[in-house]
Specification:
Number of strands: 0
Oligomer: single chain
Helix content: 40-55%
């Protein structure tokens, strides 16, 4: 025998009223849940748009600074600050690591 905290109503009119109240509560919960979902989805869309705009702004600033995004597979070597040279080892006796 199941144990109820509040037993179901015995009167048929009370059962009908309880069913109607239950239907209204379920409908209200559905509407509130839908509204909450729409609010969360709207906030996600706004956050995504803000992130997209931020990335677009950073790309714009980089393009203004001279970065070329047309061929990202091959990085352009920066030869302004590098010294490229060849050398030959003459002696290894003076090497302090030995």
């Amino acid at each position: 025998m199941p144990y109820y905290i509040n037993p179901p109503p015995g009167n048929p009119l009370t059962r009908i009223i309880a069913a109607i109240i239950g239907v209204f509560l379920l409908a209200g919960a559905f509407i509130i849940g839908t509204a909450a979902l729409l609010v969360i989805a709207g906030l996600a869309v706004i956050a995504g748009l803000a992130l997209w705009l931020r990335v677009a702004w950073i790309k714009h600033q980089l393009r203004k600074g001279g970065v070329d995004f047309s061929n990202p597979a091959e990085p352009q070597p920066d030869t302004r600050d590098a010294i490229d040279a060849e050398y030959t080892v003459i002696s290894v006796k003076d090497d302090p690591r030995d």
